[in-house]
Task: structure prediction
Amino acid sequence: MTLLLAPFHYPFMQRACIAALAVGMLCSAMGTYVVLRRLAFIGDGIAHASFAGIVIAYMRGANYYLGAAIVAVLTALGIGFVHRRGRISMDTSIGVLFTGAFALGVFLMSRQSNYAVDLQSFLFGDILAVQTNDLIIIVGLALFVVVALAVLYRGLLYTTFDPVVAEAGGISSGAYEYALLVLVALTVIIGLQSVGIVLVAALLVTPAAAAYQLTKRFAPMFALSTLFGAISSLGGLYLSYYARGSSGATIVLFTTVLFFVALAIKSVRQSAARRTIHVSPPALSK
Amino acid sequence: MTSAVHARDLVVRYDDFVALDGVSFDVGFGEALGVVGPNGSGKSTLLKAIAGLIPRSGGELLVLGVEPRHVTGGSIAYVPQVESVDWSFPATVWDVVAMGRFPRLPFWTLFGAQDRAAVEHALDVVKMRGLSRRPIAELSGGQQQRVFVARALAQEPKLLLLDEPTTGVDAATEKALCDVVRELVHGGLPVIMATHDLESVSRWFDRLMVLDRQVLAIGEPREVAESGVYASIRESLHTHGHMRVDHEPHESHTTHPEIRL
Result:
């Protein structure tokens, strides 16, 4: 037992655990909306866009998080605006804006005479390097997003399923879309340090996709996705300690395996249901 | 306020395409107006303009006495065509009908006994109570249609807009829906419904409008039926009718043009 808990004796491991749990649960909770709105691309997009913010913050000696957060939120709002004004699909809008912002980041970095080594950690993440200050920001932002999700729950659910009818009823689907984009942007920023901007997209999509295989209602999907996110981050972090591999990559591999397990469970269930001859009384289906 | 919906010379444009070109009519409380017309005649556009989903480009449009966008939340219930949503969404029949209550529920309020009662009543009315726990992915087309109507009923609206709710519905369900709507109209609810079913218009509606971007005729269903306009629309529906089902399930140029790359 002591041996199993050995990794958690180190303070950096304890901090990493809290960060991983917060990031994993938050990303996968948001992921429920991301997957149901078919925005799988958004995490990747905003994560790349935030690179410009990191470079600008680096150049000005400002806080990386702040720079990344500002650019991420602006990009998110821009994506919503271009989608609505340009009447182009959300995916196209994401494609236009994230490549532009990412290119700006690369351009600015290429003009720096001294190559910025520590920018690498933001690309690939290093959860073991999380400091107490980072932890406060992560947990603070996570709490904000959780409260926002609770407040916006009904409107987000309705506008995700049927934005047109929700709008006719007086629930502004545009406002909820912008709110969701901003929340995704903040979530991506929170995930930035732990799993890195390259892999944050996975936590926004895979746990929710796994949950979707196993349930047919929204609330259980939301809960299950959040649980999968928590299991993946803690499990991945724990395994990475023994496997001596990158923690971010291990977390993502863990959630990918979870997805295929969920898919297998669904397939087994379905073929079992097919074998049982299903006769429902005709009166019920009327 | 004498009429629930008041339109004078209403114009709706999508970029260069004029979908509605000077439409005038009134719908009173406790009145059901049917809207018939060929494909792309602007039936869906008219409903969406009234629901405040698309802006007017000209003329006057008052809904419940105010501009469509200023109508109090929860007042307008809109029943779209069933293809408008993704039915693989993780929700049960109950979940979808319950959404009808959301416009009137601020975030800090719980989904209370009154809301549950409204949902149950709506499910009873469309005879879907027994299927309330069924995932919506497992419903037939007619059942999907009834779920949408139930959601609108659960909303307890002040104006009901329906876009071809009898498409793909069997005769018994069609009659049941008609009875539901007539009862609501009898209770004072204004109803506007787009339909392609010319056979049953006199059962459903107090008045009938023939629309083809402009109002070609409006009046009691029997009067409109006896005018030549009705026959020409019937002819056009007849010749284009099956094409619509096979190739054009949506009125493509009246919906929002969206470039998909």
About this structure: Residues 173-214 of chain A form the longest helix (42 residues). Chain A touches chain B at residues 36, 87-89, 92, 150-155, 157-158, 160-162, 164-171, 212, 215-218, 220-221, 284-286 (CB under 8 Å).
